[in-house]
Amino acid sequence: SDLPSPFAYLLTIHLKEGRNLVIRDRCGTSDPYVKFKLNGKTLYKSKVVYKNLNPVWDETVVLPVQTLDQKLWIKVYDRDLTSSDFMGSAFVALAELELNRTTEQVLKLEDPNSLEDDMGVIVLNLRIAAGLLLSCLILLNERCERWACFTLGHLAVSFKCTISLPLFIASKPSLNLGHVCVFTRSTRLSDLLRKNQLWNGLVTITLLEGKNIPGGNWAEIFILLKLGDQRYRSKTLCKSANPQWREQFDFHYFSDRKDMLDIEVWRKDNKKHEELLGTCQVDITALPMKQTNCLELPLEKHPGSLLMLVAVAPCTGVSISDLCVCPLGDPSERQQISQRYCLRNSFRDIKDVGFLQVKVLKAVDLLAADFAGKSDPFCVLELGNDSLQTHTVYKNLNPEWNKVFTFPIKDIHDVLEVTVFDEDGDKPPDFLGKVAIPLLSIRNGKQSCYTLKNKDLERASKGVIYLELDVLFNPIKASIRTFKPREKRFTEDNRKFSKKILSRNVDRVKKITMAIWNTIQFLRSCFLWESTVKSMIAFVVFVVTVWSVELYMVPLALLVLFAYNFSLVTTGKVNSTQDAQASKIAELMGLDEDEDDDDKESEKKGLIDRIHMVQEIIIAVQTILEETASFGERIKNTFNWTVPFLSVLACLVLVAATVILYFIPLRYIVLIWGINKFTKKLRNPYAIDNNELLDFLSRVPSDVQ
Length: 705
Hints:
Layout: E1 9-19, E2 32-38, E3 41-45, E4 56-65, E5 71-79, E6 84-93, E7 103-108, E8 121-130, E9 135-140, E10 146-152, E11 155-160, H1 165-171, H2 191-197, E12 201-211, E13 220-227, E14 230-233, E15 244-253, E16 260-268, E17 274-283, E18 291-298, E19 305-314, E20 319-322, H3 331-340, E21 354-364, E22 377-383, E23 386-389, E24 400-409, E25 415-422, E26 430-438, E27 446-453, E28 460-473, H4 475-482, H5 499-527, H6 532-548, H7 553-571, H8 573-589, H9 593-604, H10 607-610, H11 612-639, H12 644-663, H13 666-683, H14 692-699
Antiparallel strand pairs: 1-4, 1-8, 2-3, 2-5, 5-6, 7-8, 9-10, 10-11, 12-15, 12-19, 13-14, 13-16, 16-17, 18-19, 20-24, 21-24, 21-28, 22-23, 22-25, 25-26, 27-28
Helix pairs in contact: 5-11, 7-12
Main location: membrane
GO cellular component, one term: synaptic vesicle membrane
Function: Might play a role in the development of cardiac outflow tract.
């Protein structure tokens, strides 16, 4: 009792499972996770178990506790991408626990604001232990290795830490330790934070087909694939008991997590009701590395099976470090990385397109998100599905992170998104600002200041962020990747109806329609001889063109159009036109915020729920309009040299097409094309079909982008 004991007890929690939890998702399930709180502070958050009302967590955590005159709160939430829905809570009075004895607790979940009587139960084991004085000091030596110095009475022990402190304490029950003091750097970026972010492998799933899927003949079928927190949803196929997907998905692989690949087969009827048809699992750790495995997986407790290819490959190039040890700062390492992406290695490891290094230096004049006029900012960097984050700088509007992040580049047309958030305890973080930087626009080694924008990148937010970026890539690998399908994004929330987006898409389609209509009217006026001079010129051009044109002249004419637009770009005429279009789009996007507030208020009143079927039809129309407008704008922007890399690539393809059409008869070209199409399935039964032209256009930004 005489000892200074800010943490006199150790509380061991073994979270086992949940039973009969409440439904929070529209599909009739929930994605539950658990938070443990003391004195209003979240001490631990469990993993998320997706689509399960009887989740099994089997997680253990050891927490230091100051006194026993407090309550341990257990709160259950349903995970959504934008927010979390409350699923009930329970508490345990620590004073009622016996010292040094493990007791099982079956806690009934309750919510005074809910009308549900039975919200399920949470099962866990609790153990409270008290002991002698222990002081732990974690230091960082010059080589960034961790050392621990323990003082137990008059005995001092020092050794290198290779395990985390809770694991060390749990493995030494004979020490009966109580007093724990951990000293870290003020930045709070621990090795654990880095380790939890850095993946060291890539799991590639090729979903081929289903066989004898129950109920597939009268409902639409889709697949959900989950590996840890990563989720993909396949495309929804028409009614068939043997659906063919032919889709590819890439997961990050963490060798120390031992996660199972969960596969769920779902069906959706005409009323949009979703029902789980069957599940299966794949143990990724049991598969050999650097080898494609063909698996036919039977559905558990249901007839039918899934055929897929699974490949596990090591992944390099992902790192988080301090400024003093950045990879490209070392001349020898920079030369080694440059050699990896030189032209000589263009056909080696074709998926490894390039290397990106991002120095996140600091931010200035951020938005104050806390009541005290401060913020707790941290940065999240996203490149495609890859995501890394900085540590949190507490109570600061001018944070300095000074960290270096590296990413492997899989598509040179990806956009790096850097988002600044305010950490808000156990609540979702508050958005402070965002920037989006296309990889092809990066100037190597130049420190740049970027103005933060709002979530939709429509208007400027408060504050700026300082970044220094370097990108190294192989142009041949990047060109080949351009004509292949883009990487699918992880599952996101369903799109919602927005009046301003619908209005913008209608205006974009109207522009394209008017351009086509004006062309038709011009041809019609030539036929009707409304202007004698114009009609005479058009007639002469028509006769000369039909009489002398050859097939190879078609791509040649497109090359002339590229050259003409390039001359406009050099004189600045195209840029001024595009700026005018951008300003007009900004006006469409910047509708009164009161309109958005009205939409949100309508959603709160349940209007969207009452017209759910109508809303889905409107969303489908909104999506079709957007795709139609984007397609036309991307064709225009290809010729306008909006992205010079893509325009140069298109010119090279047109030059090759011109030469081929000039020297090789058309019948031979069509014959080679047909033989390739007919024999593709025979040569590679698991090939994924794609349209190279559409894949190319998907890399060209639309006017809104």
